[in-house]
Amino acid sequence: MKNILDFSLEDLKLWMEENNEGKFRAKQIFEWIYKKGIFDFDNMTNISKDIKNKLKDNFYIGVPQTVNKYTSNIDGTQKFLFKYRDGNIIESVIMKYKYGNTICVSTQVGCRMGCKFCASTIGGIVRNLTHGEIAGQILRAQSEINERISNVVLMGSGEPLDNYDNVIKFIKLINSEEGLNIGQRHITLSTCGIVPKIKELADKELQITLAISLHAPSDDIRKTMMPIANKYSLNEIVDACRYYSVKTNRRITFEYALVKGVNDKKEHAKELCNLLKGLLCHVNLIPINEIKENDYKKSNMKDIDAFKETLTRCGIETTIRREMGSDINAACGQLRKNYMESN
Ligand code: SAH
């Protein structure tokens, strides 16, 4: 049995031909799944019983089941725990903005990057998600809220560039007209900075936004927070980003989680200015989400404002990320971890 969501339209056309059915059936099935949100072959009314049986013998529609759902009373952010057929659980978050619904999807079950502040990586990696499984998160979420999702950020559990081939296929699928028709400029991929893969992505010349989880102005500090810093230096990351923005004409987003006494002083802001000088970029400051597994503490608002001020003064556009869903443990990996511990 195969997950039909892992078949591109072309793949499915080919399958139809090989199975002596009309190629146009593939498009009909895509319409049921991606346009109408129907996840049961039996409800596809323009498909004959014969073909339905053939499909059911070969495929399942791998949209995950909703295990739990939490809605923030503060801002309406919704967090979902989804379960795949093999029992693995991941989380997805929907944030409601004026310009539309944004979903934060997971790309792996767990993560092997080992960032010290992150709850998703504590148990290591379980497995990669296929592109259809990642798309399934959007399909399930849309049917849960009964509204279209127009923006996607790959910022849930997992390192997208550690699951590169599936992530590229996922972007193609959701971007395609017959799929979810989500514009490339409405897709953001966030990475801890796997340099060769950033370059490979740049060569694809997609119009997606690249976000880098920088979190430190120097290699020394970064090494204390993120093991990946032992492999790639900040200079190598910034060079790869420059290459990405030249290739795509896109502005890079740098995410910087402020941790009290670790990376939030004026001297750090100045160091960051020097690092990013001349790059087409934008810095997003994030008050770190405190988790019980480490001692990292949120910076004071005063320090956060001062950090922003220093960056702005040296010409770097800077925003402070609004905290969403803080009453529902919306930070990376916290829900899955709590769920796994209590079940
Ligand atoms: N692996 C990718 C995407 C997943 S993490 C990456 O590293 O970018 C999504 C974002 O949440 C990253 O910027 C990550 O560094 C950040 N993050 C993880 N745990 C956090 C925490 N406790 N507080 C604030 N941001 C956190």
Output the CATH homologous superfamily of the largest domain.
Aldolase class I
Strand content: 15-25%
- Mean pLDDT level: 95
Cofactors, ions and other ligands in the entry:
S-adenosyl-L-homocysteine
How would you write the strand order of the largest sheet?
3-4-5-6-9-10-11-12-13-14
Sheet with most strands: 10 strands, mixed
Computed over alpha carbons, the radius of gyration is 21 Å
Low-confidence stretches: none
Overall helicity:
25-40%
Number of domains: 2
> Outline, from the CA principal axes?
globular
Q: Looking at CATH, which topology of the largest domain would you report?
A: TIM Barrel
List keywords for this structure.
binds S-adenosyl-L-homocysteine, globular, metal ion binding, methyltransferase, DNA polymerase, domain 1, 10-stranded mixed β-sheet, 2 domains, TIM Barrel, Methyltransferase_A, alpha/beta, tRNA binding, 20% strand
Outline the structure in words:
The chain has helices at 9-18, 24-35, 49-58, 131-145, 164-175, 195-203, 219-225, 234-248, 266-276, 301-313, 334-342; strands at residues 2-3, 59-60, 65-71, 78-83, 89-97, 100-104, 108-110, 125-128, 151-154, 187-191, 209-213, 252-258, 281-287, 317-320. It is globular. Helix 1 (9-18) crosses helix 2 (24-35). The protein is 36% helix and 20% strand. Strand 12, helix 9 (266-276) and strand 13 (281-287) form a beta-alpha-beta unit. The chain has a ten-stranded mixed sheet with strand order 3-4-5-6-9-10-11-12-13-14. A two-stranded parallel ribbon has the order 1-2. The model has no long low-confidence stretch (mean pLDDT 95). The longest helix has 15 residues, at 131-145. The chain has two domains: 2-60, DNA polymerase, domain 1 (Orthogonal Bundle), CATH 1.10.150; 65-342, Aldolase class I (TIM Barrel). The chain has 343 residues and is α/β, with parallel strands linked by helices. It is built from eleven helices and 14 strands. The structure holds S-adenosyl-L-homocysteine. Residues 113, 115, 117-118, 155, 159, 190-192, 213, 255, 257, 286, 288-289, 291, 331-332 line the site of S-adenosyl-L-homocysteine. S-adenosyl-L-homocysteine (SAH) is lined by residues 113, 115, 117-118, 155, 159, 190-192, 213, 255, 257, 286, 288-289, 291, 331-332.
